[in-house]
Amino acid sequence: MRALDLIRDDVVACRSCPRLVSWREHVAHDKVARFADEEYWGKPVPGFGDPGAQILILGLAPAAHGGNRTGRIFTGDRSGDFLFASLHRCGLANQAASIARDDGLTLSGAYVTAVNRCAPPGNKPTPEERDRCLPYLAGELGALEQLRAIVALGAYAWDGALRAIGETGATVPSPKPRFGHGADVAVGPYRLLGCFHPSQQNTFTGKLTPDMIDGVLRRAIVIAA
Q: Model-level pTM greater than 0.85?
């Protein structure tokens, strides 16, 4: 637990990427109308969950008006609504929705984090910004001593997971395994599972359905048992 606390403190204090610092603070100052009365977090967003987690769920980055507003990854946006509903159905979360970092949500056996910790313009971090953030993810992998399965939400998270696993000193297959929904590969001491990202673009079009994300999470639970 102490190791995760130290990583959290380092994440929240980070100002390594000038473009991302400028963007996240701009968004927090010039708020959208629907959140005009709220105080935005406006800092890098740490991971959260069960320090004894066997399953890690990995996203791309905080949403500008989601995690960048609430201070908790996937909290307060539509992607998070879809994800936490699935975590609840699968028995990994105590409630089906998350609207604020103090709303009582707890995770059991799961930890949620992202490759990049600052909301990026257009949801597109640069490769340099990704690489500056990767040590935080590698640190979380090391601190989560019971971790067995990593669920990568989208191709960016899949690539980030492979890179972070490599940074821990584990051997990553070459050529690197390719992302796909339902992909399931052994990488170092972990099983890496692919799932389409729960973005509105995917959930509204039916590219990702509740049954599909539940299936990946239930596979991770079997692996972790």
A: yes
The single-letter DSSP state of residue 61 is: -
Q: Where does the pLDDT of residue 1 fall: very low under 50, low under 70, confident under 90, or very high at 90 and above?
A: low
Listed residue (60, 51, 78) closest to 121, CA to CA: 60
118's torsion region: left (phi>0), alpha (psi -120 to 50) or beta? beta
- Under 8 Å CB-to-CB from 138, ≥6 apart: which residues? 164, 165, 167, 168
Q: What does the pLDDT look like over 23-65, one tens digit per residue?
A: 999 999 999 999 999 999 999 999 999 999 999 999 999 999 9
Q: Which top CATH class is 2-224? A: alpha beta
CB contact at 8 A, 84 and 97? yes
Domain regions of the chain by residue span? 2-224
Closest C-alpha among 133, 150, 145, 146 to residue 57: 150
